[in-house]
């Protein structure tokens, strides 16, 4: 209708013009030389001058504000509007940030844009978690719990991911990891299966080793013919909370606890836990002590003992995270859930696991296993150290938590092939051994390149743990009869 009226008016107007046949005025107009000063009451400058723009004084009839000269003066044009308000959104509270983070991550997970790229969706979600961890770190564990519940990731999300279990660890990792880069891709691959397995960070071997491998290899020390007896133990997993008579055939590991039950017989114990332990349970003290008593008898070392012993880790029981604590860890003399962070994680968190390294070093020194100098080395190298026997044999220990897949802290700064410095430590120790003509045995080594470089003339053997099986592995050098054994 409006369009029709406008069209009709236009037609009438044109018709009037045509009907009047009024001739147009002159084709030229000459502006008077003097500015019509009567248009405005007053001016900031001389309006009659022809060398400058007239600057009338303007007063707003609504606000009654007289606008200042500097607002229109070409010599003082403001570069920033600093005198007016520029509204910003209000600061969100920590709980609001948590709600927004949950909403954004759910939105990302359901967006059709990411439907064909789960890896991009996962890393985008990690970026959201990262900003929450930095802006409202106390909400990090709550984010983990809520996402766990939404995606049905665990049976008891609060127990697994609360502030007193993995929640604090995950918040630290979210804050310091490169969520959009290599770290994020690795996290999404390892823990969620949403990204392809990224390649290992390259290690520049051109400058890694202080010296090239000797060629030919130095001659081995002449064997004395004396056979050494070595005891290698690992993964005892002592359970001081083991409960005799509890369900040993439980449906949810760890069994042999008062809360253990069998889904098929929740009210009646199917297999009461015996005094000396059961298959699905960690080891009670009677079993461990019986095993220790049997070792010298079964190995024929009752009279003279072993030349030396090696223990490759894991004493703590497999408790759920919410049942573990620093005190229980110290009691068990082992690191809590293999969660150790690198020293360079951040200035506020650098020493968060020093209590563990200090305690272990002090225990080993107290037992007379290492000297005070070696104990200091252990305190500053994540409990790693090197000792030497009188016959020149070196034993180099490592903390492999920094290379364990289930250590969340290992996913910070993965672009560095040696973020913790542990590989640098063992390489330098092996170089010192080579320079001195020593041989060494390494426990828990993650760097195969160092094995290649210093074998077989320096490394006599590699000892691991954690598989819960007796295993033997041999690495043989191409086109030679030389090899390095590994014992698990």
UniProtKB/TrEMBL annotation:
GO terms for cellular component: extracellular space. InterPro entries: Metallo-depent_PP-like (IPR029052). Residues 1-20 form the signal peptide. The keyword Ribonucleoprotein does not apply. Keywords: Glycoprotein, Hydrolase, Signal. GO terms for molecular function: phosphoric diester hydrolase activity. It comes from the Eukaryota. PANTHER family: ACL091CP, SPHINGOMYELIN PHOSPHODIESTERASE. This is Sphingomyelin phosphodiesterase. It comes from Rhodonia placenta.
